[in-house]
Design a protein that fits this description.
The complex is a heterodimer of chains A (about 240) and B (about 425). Chain A is an alpha/beta fold and about 240 residues long. Chain A is about 40% helix and about 25% strand. Chain A has 10 helices and 10 strands. In chain A, the strands form 2 sheets. Chain A has a 6-stranded mixed β-sheet with strand order 6-7-8-3-9-10, sandwiched between helices. In chain A, helix 3 runs parallel beside helix 6 (about 140-150). Helix content of chain B is about 35%, strand content about 25%. In chain B, the strands form 5 sheets. A 9-stranded mixed β-sheet of chain B has the order 4-3-5-6-7-8-9-14-13, sandwiched between helices. A 4-stranded antiparallel β-sheet of chain B has the order 10-11-12-15. In chain B, strands 20-19-18-21 form a 4-stranded mixed β-sheet. The radius of gyration of chain B is 23 Å and the shape is globular. Classes of the chains: A alpha/beta (about 240), B alpha/beta (about 425). At the A-B interface, strand 1, strand 2 and strand 10 of A face helix 2 and helix 6 of B.
Chain lengths: ~240, ~425
């Protein structure tokens, strides 16, 4: 469904992504894990067109996205939930959701949009309760739910999630992850998940990629990555015990 | 017939190539990071692993050879610390420094899956009773087949290298339905059944999955007709994993290489140049998923050709022809790879000078016989019968000890041997494979 071939991205002279090749099949949950600064967010921003790749190809259902603008990419069905949520604090919850449907408002009309808002509310009941509250007054977990809900309002085929668990309490995190699993199960939304919380992400995923300093080091089934000692050592916090040798 | 992993085995070529490129790039990055041997080669040749952006470009990287593996004996090429290795095997070569192969837990899991693929391609199911008559030891064959058969859920009998009569007894009493062995063992079995007066039709045997040595369509027909079974070929290279690199499907028209785990190329063994699909040459393989022991462009020494046309079974994986021979003079006798240099070394130690010898392999009653003719000086040959006999004994014992298989030794006159060598070279394989 989404296919990257040898994507190279630069920040000025700094070569951030080095020949990134990866793919996501329809209906899959794929995780991208890696340390801080490995280039994970850059990769998401490159897919969604916020940063333009200097070389390589991004193919989405056979169409080349590489030089397309972010709004075109959203219209094609790829929505990103950015790191740190980035919701509109001074707007109400419901207005935030409506803004998410901006790209299809004219096409689909307010009735359909209203139905989708109901759907988001059934997915996140807490948002319904607070629909008239200002987004900035929500708790971290609620804000994350709102950010996901806002992205879903454009009815994406692929959801790019950037660190959805960041700064949230463990209980809230597990809630968010459960929702992600449900999104795939119910809506058949394809999900590309970037996470620091590697174990939780991999447990939820079908496959995973491991990134290190702008390069892909592993492509494997998520279960295999959880078993892999190198991944465990670097990203899953195992093997902390002193080693006798 | 059922397919074990349809997602990968029947993957459209374009998607498969995407996956191959992904795995190739990450394997290169890992090999560069974790294996000093590869890091040195890449640095010396000024190759940056992450610059490889296509399968075509990959084909210009240097080869890995058997010598590289020997130079790094035992653990030099491991990509993970030893404590992450959960299994160690060695190659079947009868040389002083065999190749040591390590497996992580994931490597073992994938091994089982890949063997399960070709078992299922041959029609094995969880209802089958599989008798594995490969020797259980350092070699990869038995353990690989064992893992795959268990994964399918068949009933596995690790019959190993039990005596033929016991194998037959097991086959009768335990109602074996699938035999896993070398093709020559299948013929030995047929012969023995005949001698014992047992009608193979009375056995429950339905299929045989054979590997570990070179064989031919003629041998397949003979096995099928004499044992009344369906015989399938499979291919493995111990250095890369063992069995599970390729296997035949019901079409019996070439062995499907599991390309999502191994990337195949065919080269001219003399020049190293790439050959086009369909051309015959040396098979070069790269591991795409191995964690403990990744090998890049490994020269297998096996001669075959690749066929990318679609197969009747529905698998999109490339098919390789049955192995046609070796590029070096490794001789496979009773499933053991015999390297002539090893014999040379033994002779040198005993004689104390550059030995002259000729190796002949024949097959009698379906058993391989390895004969070494050694040249001795004329005075020993004519005058000293006792010394001659002692020398003969000494050479034979040393060879058996070193090679691990029975060897016949013959002393001949230097002149006669020189004539023979001129006519037919150092190694003669008279077996009609």
């Amino acid at each position: 469904m989404l296919r990257l071939q040898n994507v190279n991205t630069y920040y000025g002279e700094i070569h951030v992504l080095r020949n990134i090749t990866l793919h996501i099949e329809e209906g899959e949950i794929v995780s991208l894990i890696g340390a801080n600064g490995a280039g994970k967010t850059t990769l998401l921003n490159t897919i969604s067109g916020i940063i333009t790749a200097r070389s390589g190809q991004i193919l989405y259902q056979g169409k080349d996205l590489t030089r397309k603008s972010p709004d075109r990419i959203v219209k094609l069905g790829i929505a990103q939930v950015p790191e740190g949520r980035q919701i509109f604090n001074p707007l109400s919850v419901i207005d935030n959701l409506k803004l998410g449907s901006y790209v299809r408002y004219r096409r689909d009309g307010s009735k359909k949009i209203q139905r989708d808002i109901e759907e988001i509310f059934s997915l996140f009941p807490i948002l319904q309760e607070r629909q008239h509250q200002l987004a900035g007054t929500l708790s971290g977990g609620e804000q994350q739910m709102l950010a996901i809900g806002r992205a879903l309002m454009c009815r994406p085929k692929i959801l790019l999630l950037d660190e959805p668990s960041m700064g949230l309490a463990p209980l809230v995190v597990s809630e968010i992850f459960k929702t992600i699993a449900r999104l795939r199960a119910v809506n058949r939304t394809t999900i590309f998940l970037v996470e620091q919380n590697a174990r939780a992400a991999l447990k939820l995923s079908d496959r995973g990629y491991v990134m290190e300093t702008g390069k892909i080091m592993f492509e494997a089934d998520a279960a295999d990555l959880l078993e892999n000692k190198e991944v465990q050592r670097a990203y899953l916090g195992k093997e902390k015990k002193p080693i006798w040798e | 017939m059922a397919i074990w992993e349809e997602k990968y085995e029947c993957c459209p070529r374009e998607e498969l190539e995407q996956l191959q490129l992904e795995r190739l790039q990450s394997s290169l990055n890992r090999a560069y990071k974790n294996v000093s041997f590869y890091r040195k080669i890449f640095d010396d040749k000024k190759i940056v692993p992450e610059d490889i952006s296509s399968l075509e470009q990959f084909k210009s990287l240097p080869f890995t050879t058997r010598k590289d593996l020997q130079d790094n004996y035992p653990y030099g090429l491991f990509a993970v610390p030893l404590r992450e290795v959960v299994r160690i095997h060695t190659t079947t070569e009868t040389i002083d420094t065999p190749t040591v192969i390590g497996y992580t837990r994931n490597d073992l899991k994938n091994w089982g899956i890949l063997v399960a693929r070709f078992l299922m391609a041959g029609g094995v199911t969880h209802d089958d009773v599989i008798q594995i008559s490969f020797h259980y030891g350092l070699f990869t064959g038995a353990f690989g087949l064992h893992a795959g058969a268990e994964r399918i859920g068949a009933s596995v009998i690790p019959a190993s290298s039990e005596h033929t009569d016991r194998q037959i007894r097991i086959m009768q009493d335990y109602r074996t339905t699938v035999l896993v062995s070398t093709p020559s063992f299948a013929l030995i079995l047929a012969e023995r059944l005949n001698a014992l007066g047992i009608n193979p039709k009375m056995l429950t045997l339905k299929k045989g999955l054979f590997g570990g040595e070179l064989w031919s369509e003629r041998v397949r027909r003979e096995i099928e007709e004499r044992l009344f079974i369906d015989a399938f070929d499979n291919y493995g290279v111990s250095e890369l994993m063992g069995p599970g690199i390729a296997g035949e499907c019901a079409a019996k028209d070439g062995l499907h290489i599991f390309e999502d785990h191994f990337f195949p190329e065919i080269i001219d063994p003399k020049t190293g140049a790439l050959l086009a699909p369909g051309q015959t040459g040396e098979l070069v393989l790269t591991t795409l998923s191995r964690e403990a022991f990744p090998l890049l462009r490994y020269r297998t020494g096996d001669i075959t050709s690749l066929d990318y046309t679609p197969c009747a079974c529905g698998r999109t994986l490339v098919r390789m022809k049955r192995i046609m021979g070796r590029v070096d003079d490794i001789i496979i006798v009773k499933g053991v790879n015999v390297v002539p240099e090893q014999i040379e070394k033994v002779l040198k130690e005993i004689e104390g000078c550059e030995p002259q010898y000729q190796i002949t392999v024949t097959r009698e009653q379906y058993r391989d016989i390895l004969e070494v003719q050694v040249a001795v000086s004329e005075n020993i040959f004519f005058d000293e019968m006792k010394r001659q006999r002692m020398l003969l004994e000494q050479i034979r014992n040393a060879l058996i000890h070193r090679l691990g298989i029975k060897v016949q030794v013959k002393l001949v006159e230097r002149k006669t041997l020189e004539e023979h060598l001129k006519q037919s070279g150092k190694v003669i394989d008279k077996r009609q494979l």
